[in-house]
Each structure stands twice: as structure tokens, then as C-alpha cells.
Write a structure and sequence with these properties.
The protein is globular, with a radius of gyration of 21 Å. Helix content is 27%, strand content 22%. It has a single domain, classed as Chorismate synthase AroC (Chorismate synthase, AroC fold), CATH 3.60.150.10. A hairpin with a 2-residue loop joins β8 and β9. α1 packs across α3, α3 packs across α7 and α5 runs antiparallel to α7. The protein has 7 helices and 18 strands. It binds flavin mononucleotide (FMN). Flavin mononucleotide binds next to α7.
Amino acid sequence: MSSNVFGTLFRLMTFGESHGLEIGAVIDGCPAGMALDAADIQRDLDRRRPGQSRYTTQRREEDRVRIVSGVFEGRTTGTPIGLMIENQDQRARDYNEIKQLFRPGHADWTYWKKYGIRDYRGGGRASARETAMRVAGGAIARKVLRSLGVEIQGCLIAMGPVKIDPNRKNWGEVAQNPFFCPDSESVAKFEELLDRCRSQGDSVGAMLEVVARGVPVGWGEPVYGRLDADLAAGMMGINAVKSVEIGAGSHAAEGFGSQMADEMIPDAEAPEGVRFASNHSGGILGGISNGNEIVVRLAVKPTPSIHSELRTVNTMGLAQIIQTRGRHDPCVGIRAVPVAEAMMALVLVDHYLRHRARAGIFKVLHD
Ligand SMILES: Cc1cc2nc3c(=O)[nH]c(=O)nc-3n(C[C@H](O)[C@H](O)[C@H](O)COP(=O)(O)O)c2cc1C
């Protein structure tokens, strides 16, 4: 299996499976000299960790990260940073019953068809357990970005048919509830919806939003390395994500040019002396950041492993009924919020380094 590496100059490689001994990551390209300890990474991992509320999987993982290389006396050395997390709560027996069956909506059947072998315990490499290492790598990316004044924040703006009221959106609320929800009045509705899903053995999808503030004008390579294209690839590469949009997203197709243009106003206080009257472009023009907030939304499908009966086939191709046991999130969109923030951080830090490399040559020639 190839393609386990993400990024061009700031690269994250992950390894490990849902029910293996450990999962890990190697980060290549982190600048030297940055203060870094495990606590910097643990903070973000704790936000993704399972078993924190009754609305996420009850798999008990401490997700305690160890830095095994690339840091000396509390500072990055510029060499590859190795990270490891032990898998603690592996209950492979939960999967014995479905050893010969394929879960509809999961990766079981395509892995089987492609490789002729599959790790039936929790989906093996296809399990979102892997996303813990994205969050770990993303935490390091975030620390680099923070030193540049860039902040990233994600939230959940809809779950199934229940949408937050955008007028009540308050980023300060996100850390106050188990759903990363920015509208306190929607929390009870989400609880009720998830309780209903649980009792019916069902699951539900979600819509997330991630923003980056403080990105300067100029990041992004405008043809095949467009910032928007790389963000879309990063977000779409998260398990269970089915659509990604930037700025106005699919609403752009409904609008007129006069409405969708972000009009430009001279403003000495704004980045590069220009303010935009709106942000339909989501902070990116021609694949390059324009200094506005970068706004990405992603749709996450309902958890495929559900307790309800579904039709499927077995490894002999015969019709079967499957009912997945084990501990699964009723809405994987909740724990996908820190993962989406991490992917935003990984793409942005990579583009920061790419911009610096290219801009450096420009400056040498023209200064
Ligand atoms: C944070 C997170 C946790 C997930 N947890 C589960 C889970 O407990 N059970 C499950 O069936 N799928 C879970 N998924 C979704 C599957 O990993 C995903 O649907 C599967 O790998 C197939 O990939 P695809 O949906 O992108 O096609 C989770 C996804 C994310 C982002």
C-alpha cells in the first residue's frame, strides 16, 4: 500500500492500524529551533480522543503521545520528528462475527478486492484510528503557524437535519460542549438527535466548518499547487468526508457575478492595504491566499458501522445480513473536527514553507 505521506516540504507520514500495537508518524521538514514537547501535541489529541462523552465511541484510548526523535533539549533539531501512540483498548473479538462479511459503507470490500487480504479488526488501516496521527502532526504544524500569527479553529454547524442558527454562532461556545458546536441553543437538539440514533441503532452525518485567521496574502502556487485545491485534497482525504467547499462553495453556482464578487476597498489597516467587502472566495483567489479568513466546510457521512441490520455479501459473494457490534461513534463528524483543523494546519504550513522557498529566490533576484 503506497501513498501514506502527505505534503511537499512539510511532510507527514503515518503508519499503524486500528488494532495493531502502536500507531505512529514521522514529520519531515519541520523547521529547527522551535520549542516542542509532548504537551503541545497532547492538547490537540485530547480533543479528538474517544470516550470523552457518551456521544462518542466508548473505546478507551488514552492516546498518550511520545516524541521519539527530532527534539533535543526541548527544541526541534530539523531532523525527522518521530511520534508514537500505543493502542490500548483493542477488542478484536468485537469483529469476529463479521470476519467473513463486508460492512456496507466501510472500506472492507474495496480493500479485499484490491489487496486480497484485509485486517477485519476495526478496518485495519482504513480505520479512522489513523487520524490520531494527523492530529499529532497537525499540532506541530499549528505551532509553527501560531508563531506566524495564524490561528485555526473548527466547529460543527449541522448534524443530520439539525442546523445551527448562524446568527447565534459564537466561537467562544465551541469548547463548552461535546459537539464543538458554536451555538449553545443547538446543543440540546444534537443530544436528542444522537439519543434517538443510539436507540434506533443508527448513525447520522454532519457538516463542519474550519477557518484560518491571519494567513498573509500570497500563500499558494496558482496552477497545480493551488491553495484551495490542496485544502480540498487534504479535507477530502479524511475518512467519511463526502464533500468539501471553500467560501461560498456550492452556493456560488446559484449566484450572480454582481453578488459573488468580493468588492475591494482601500484600507490602510488591512493586509496589503486592501479590504474585501465580503468573503465569498473563502480567502483564496487564483489559488493564492488574499489575506481574508480562509473558510472551508466539509460534509461527513454517517458512521457506516451501525447496529441496525443491513444487506451485504460475504467473502464467497453470498447474500447475508450484517449487524455491526462493537463501539462506534453515532456521529463521526464530531471527532472529525480536530482532524479537519489538523489537515488545514498541515496544508497551510506546507504552503508557508513553499512560499518562503519561492519568494526567497524572487527576493534575491529583485531586492
Ligand atoms: C474521527 C472519525 C472516526 C470514525 N469512527 C468510525 C467508527 O467508529 N466506525 C465506523 O464504521 N466508521 C468510522 N469512521 C468512518 C470510517 O473510517 C470510514 O467511513 C471508512 O474508512 C470508509 O471510508 P470512506 O467513508 O471515506 O469511504 C470514522 C471517521 C472519522 C473521521
